[in-house]
Amino acid sequence: MADHFTDFDMPDTELTRKALAFAEELETPALVNHCVRTYLFGRAAGEAQGLRPGADYDDELLFLAAVLHDAGLSERGDGDQRFEVDGADVAAAFLRDQGVAEDRIDIVWQAIALHTTLGVAHRLRPEIALTHLGAGADVVAQGIEAFPEGLVDRVHAAIPRLLPDAGLGDAILDQALRNHDKAPPASLAFELLRKVKPDIPVPNLREEAAEAWPGVA
């Protein structure tokens, strides 16, 4: 995997190499590959918007967020929160151990915690938005028509998919089945859980508000 730093001109620092090694320690090869592709596709999504790495956003932070964004789907990252937040916490602890400044850690934390949040993440600072867009591009090919010609094929040739969805669906669902607290309403995990457990209660805001405030007009 280290050769990809040169092959794809990824930010090559001691910290990025340690982060990739940490991801490889935590996750399956399919998930690690997905995370690296998330960086490459996120960077391409930024270029399609005229954003330049190192000028319009911190390329190292984008790499860190992308390569660590699924830490919550690992055994070590499987806590009691939704996987995005568990993963953000794992990434933050890792970066803190490496002596990274808190303001930089906060950007990575937000990018990971919000990477599945449609309608919000793409409006935030580039490192957060591009982590979200890169993940979407790799999972459902969102926005890839704007990428440079041949990039997607080149990335897949070097960093293969291994599994159609990189194993994301099973990993997220397995956690949700074991602990419904990891699948709060409206989350990606909740929607996957509903597919296999259609009887799971779906919150009704009007009913809950009426029960909370009986007799109040």
Automatic annotation (TrEMBL):
UniProt xrefs under Pfam families: HD (PF01966)
Source organism, top-level taxon: Bacteria
Span of domain HD: 32-120
Coiled-coil ranges from the UniProt annotation: none
Official protein name in the record: HD domain-containing protein
Organism of origin: Actinomadura fulvescens
